[in-house]
Amino acid sequence: MTSTPNTFDWNHIRAFLATAETGSLSAAARRLNLTQPTLSRQVAALEESLGLMLFERIGKSLQLTQAGVELLEHTRPMGLAADRIALAALGQSESITGTVRITASDVYSAYLLPDVLRRLRQLAPDLHIDIIASNDIRDLMRREADIAIRHVRPEQPELIARLIHEETARFYAAPQYLAKAGRPEDVRDLSSHDFISFGDAEGMVGHLTPLGFPLTKRNFRYESQSGLVAWELVKRGFGIAPMSDRIARQTPEVERLLPQMEPIRFPVWLTTHRELHTSRKIRLVFDLLAEHFFKKNKAAPGSGTA
C-alpha cells in the first residue's frame, strides 16, 4: 500500500461502498447524487492510494476483487457509523412525522422488526410505522410500501437496493418430532423425514436439491404460504424445515440438526424507491434498518440448539 489509513478521503470510501453495494458505477452515482465520471475518479483515487485493484469488470457489471472484498468488510462499519451520526442529528434537529410502510416476510416482521421499532420510537416518536407482512416485491412498484426487506435483488430501475448482509440457515425440528422420527445423522438421512414447506413445495425442492439435499415433493407433508404457520408446525412437531439461524435462535422450542453441515447462505436486500434521496422519514427508517440487520449479523451463531 502507498498510503496510511489516516490519509483516506471519506468521499473515496463512500464511493467505494456505494459501488460495491450496487454493482455498477452508474447505480452508485445515482445513489450518491454524483456524476458517473466523478464517482469513477473517486474509486480510482482510492485504488491508487492503496496500490490495489478493488474491482474488475465482468460483462456490464463490476465485481469485487479479493482485495475489494476484504476492504468492504473493514469499511462497511464506517458507512454505518456515518449513518448513525446522521440519524442522531436528524432525530434531534427536527420532528419527523407521517407514515412509513415497511414490507417484509411475516416471519421477519414478527421476529426481527420489533427491535427496530423500539429504536425508531426513540428517534422519531411522532412517526407512524405500517408493517406489511408479505413476500411480494410488487408492493413497492404499486407504491403500497416504502421499504422492502427481501432475499432477491429487484431489477426495476425505479428501485434502490442495498445488500445488507448474507444470512445463514440450517435445518430445525422440535424435540417431539425427533423423538418419534429419529435424529438424522447426515444429509442422506433427510430423505426419510417429513418436511414442512414455506410456500410451494416444488419451489423448495427446486431450491434445495441443487444444494445437495436429497428431497422430493413427497418429503413435504405440509405446506403453507404463511411462514408463521409453517414455523408453528415445526415447533409443534410436524416435521423439519430450513430456517434463518437468527430466527431459530429466538425459538427455544426447536433444535438445530446436522451441526457439521455447512449453512445455507442467502442474501438480504433492503429496497426502496428513489424517493429515498428526498424523504427524510424514509431515509431515517432505511438507514436504521441497514444498521440493525448488519449489527445483528455480527452475532455469533448458535451452537447446537436454538
UniProtKB/TrEMBL annotation:
GO BP term (any one): DNA-templated transcription
Keywords carried by this UniProt record: DNA-binding, Transcription, Transcription regulation
Gene3D superfamilies tied to this protein: 3.40.190.290, Winged helix-like DNA-binding domain superfamily/Winged helix DNA-binding domain
Single GO term (MF): DNA-binding transcription factor activity
Residues in HTH lysR-type domain copies: 8-65
Family, similarity comment: Belongs to the LysR transcriptional regulatory family.
PANTHER family for the chain: HTH-TYPE TRANSCRIPTIONAL REGULATOR, TRANSCRIPTIONAL REGULATORY PROTEIN
Protein name, entry field: LysR family transcriptional regulator
Species per Swiss-Prot/TrEMBL record: Phaeobacter gallaeciensis
